[in-house]
Recover the amino acids of this structure.
């Protein structure tokens, strides 16, 4: 965002509070923790001090027909009185009855449930203004019900939208209009026709900026016309029928207690748009008597990463479609088709902006549509192919050039000149920025000792610079090529090889991309050392802050737990953050707040690790990449010797000033300052 922050608000969904802190009407153990988890969420929201809070429904777990319904409602009201900002409530199906489908597992909405809700919680829809924006909450369960209140509600909504059509409008509902596509079949998790089409028409007519929904207990995002569609995670538990999103064991209670997916939103509204920050709570159940002693770094988003150019090499599907099978509990009579948006959420949280994908992704209309949406979120795509694309590839590069930031041509180094006529032709046809990359083949030590290694390496390395300089003496290449792709092998530290690459880039005004490798040369080796990965990530981020003209790509986004080169990624196979992901988020946020970095120096300190000293304006810092055997005593001795005042654990964002003596994670990169 480029304009001034106007205000911020928090969004909570599906708290599912119980009738007491020790029991639940659900048979799942994690449901018993819902009250404590809400308590923690409230404390965190109060620290953020939003202008107001909106709860998107399912305040409580017992449904209206249950004898514990009113007891749970009183528990909810008592606890949520602790929110220090104005609170607005959107009714959920557990609060007011399910939408009108007779196969639903609980009772559907009726006039008695409406009266009970209004008695306990107040009006079942609302509208208010803040900062020339209108916020509207609807009772989605009423739509298609045939109750007299439905027509009253619809007339009210149409009038509210018309009256406030000159303002920016944000809408809030419990049921999403849809999960994947507006024309999807009706199911337990969307608003049925004909009300869905009626609502979609209203959103389009009045250019609603965003609509927020709950109910699904999982994250989804879409954009249609001017409207962003958000489905929020829950604060209490994950809907584990959606564990089908990932082809891996989902963990505790069939994925229902996948705590890394629990959290709430903080939405910051600017003059030219909004940004949604996802605050992961990890299922914490802190009581109001306990103190949160940690101060954390502000969250990051791809839209507000203004200075650190980082990207991902997306080897695996990044917008994968999945079928949610009949479960025997909810949707029993047909399959539900959804898209896994957890990769997107992980990228946004890390401030990722550059994505490297194969040219073939352009052939898929659904992926192209997602590329358009990603582009609006701040992402840029670098597509690559081996050799010169065929006619189909060239056609797609030309037709969808607005989606492509650059095309990376992977060629054998000794064949570049032979490709020049075709590259010239493509340039004249209007192919966007062309990046040159090289392929490693038999001549590049494919036989090591007794073994024949199966690997395909692409991208120049620093050792190739002398050869590249000779290549660039050819004026045709200089005229045709806009950038060069390098890789930093796993046995080379990023800062040790980048200075000469940067000089070469500046001499020839080239865009440089550097693929930071985690895997080595042996496909049979397993690499799962999260600390080493986090250290490598932290050093790469510092390099990106120093060498502003170089784009750094991490080669392993999510875990590779099968096949060749098994290794850990920045996130696991459930797309939950590992240490590496959290380091990207926290360190990138810190580096964004810094000015120019100068005078860096690396020292290897015995029994401690690598210390990278650098200066930003008058401030002196040390990026400490710890070894595995570090002990608190050695660290404290180093801190005292260097007269350091502040420590930041880059995996958690915990800050520790010298006088506070907080306990930090010694298996994480640390940022130390005087």
């Amino acid at each position: 965002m480029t304009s001034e922050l106007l205000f911020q608000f928090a969004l909570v969904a599906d708290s599912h509070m119980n009738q007491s802190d020790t029991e639940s009407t659900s048979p799942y153990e994690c449901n018993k923790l819902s009250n404590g988890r809400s308590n923690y969420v409230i404390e965190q929201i109060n620290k953020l001090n939003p202008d107001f809070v909106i709860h998107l429904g399912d305040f409580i777990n017992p449904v209206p027909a249950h004898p514990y319904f009113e007891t749970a409602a009183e528990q909810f009201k008592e606890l949520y009185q602790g929110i220090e900002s104005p609170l607005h409530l959107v009714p959920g199906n557990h609060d007011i009855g399910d939408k009108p489908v007779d196969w639903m597992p609980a009772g559907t909405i009726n006039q008695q449930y409406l009266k009970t809700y209004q008695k306990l919680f107040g009006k079942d829809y609302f509208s208010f203004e803040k900062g020339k924006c209108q916020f509207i909450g609807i009772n989605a369960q009423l739509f298609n019900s045939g109750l007299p209140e439905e027509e009253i509600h619809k007339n009210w909504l149409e009038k509210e939208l018309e009256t406030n059509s000159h303002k920016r409008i944000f809408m809030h509902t419990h049921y999403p209009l849809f999960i994947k596509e507006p024309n999807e079949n009706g199911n337990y998790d969307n608003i049925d026709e004909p009300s869905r089409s009626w609502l979609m028409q209203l959103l389009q007519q009045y250019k609603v900026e965003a609509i927020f929904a709950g109910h699904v207990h999982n994250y989804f995002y879409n954009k249609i016309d001017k409207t962003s569609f958000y489905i929020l995670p829950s604060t209490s538990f994950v809907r584990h029928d959606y564990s089908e999103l990932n082809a891996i064991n989902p963990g505790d209670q069939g994925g229902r207690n996948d705590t890394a997916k629990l959290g709430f939103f903080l939405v910051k509204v600017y003059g030219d748009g909004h940004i949604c920050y996802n605050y992961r709570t990890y299922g914490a159940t802190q009581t109001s008597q306990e103190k949160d002693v940690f101060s954390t770094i502000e969250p990051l988003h791809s839209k507000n990463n203004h200075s650190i150019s980082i990207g991902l090499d997306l080897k695996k599907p990044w917008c994968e479609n999945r079928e949610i099978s009949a479960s025997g509990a909810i949707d029993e009579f047909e399959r539900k088709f959804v898209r896994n948006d957890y990769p997107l959420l992980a990228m946004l949280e890390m401030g990722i902006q550059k994505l490297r994908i194969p040219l073939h992704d352009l052939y898929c209309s659904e992926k192209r549509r997602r590329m358009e949406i990603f582009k609006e979120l701040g992402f840029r795509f670098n597509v690559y192919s081996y050799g010169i694309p065929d006619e189909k590839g060239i056609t797609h590069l030309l037709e969808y050039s607005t989606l492509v930031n650059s095309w990376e041509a992977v060629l054998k180094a000794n064949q570049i000149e032979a490709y020049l006529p075709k590259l010239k032709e493509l340039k004249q046809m209007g192919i966007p920025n062309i990046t040159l990359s090289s392929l490693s083949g038999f001549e590049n030590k494919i036989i090591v000792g007794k073994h024949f290694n199966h690997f395909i390496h692409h991208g120049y390395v620093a050792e190739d610079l002398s050869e590249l300089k000779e290549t660039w003496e050819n004026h045709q290449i200089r005229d045709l090529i806009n950038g060069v792709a390098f890789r930093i092998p796993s046995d080379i530290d990023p800062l040790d090889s980048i200075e000469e690459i940067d000089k070469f880039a500046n001499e020839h005004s080239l865009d440089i991309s550097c693929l930071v490798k985690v895997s080595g040369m042996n496909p049979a080796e397993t690499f799962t050392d999260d600390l080493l990965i986090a250290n490598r990530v932290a050093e790469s981020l510092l390099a990106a802050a120093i060498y502003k003209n170089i784009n750094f790509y991490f080669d392993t986004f999510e875990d590779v737990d099968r096949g060749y080169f098994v290794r850990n990624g920045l996130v696991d196979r459930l797309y939950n953050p590992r240490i590496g992901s959290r380091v990207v988020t926290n360190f990138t946020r810190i580096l964004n707040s810094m000015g120019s970095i100068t005078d860096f120096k690396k020292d290897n300190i015995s029994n401690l690790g690598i210390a990278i000293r650098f200066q930003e304006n008058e401030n002196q810092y040390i990026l400490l990449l710890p070894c595995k055997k570090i002990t608190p005593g050695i660290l404290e001795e180093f801190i005292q010797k260097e007269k350091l005042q502040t420590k930041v654990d880059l995996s958690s964002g915990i800050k520790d000033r010298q006088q506070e003596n907080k306990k930090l994670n010694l298996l994480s990169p640390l940022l130390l300052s005087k």
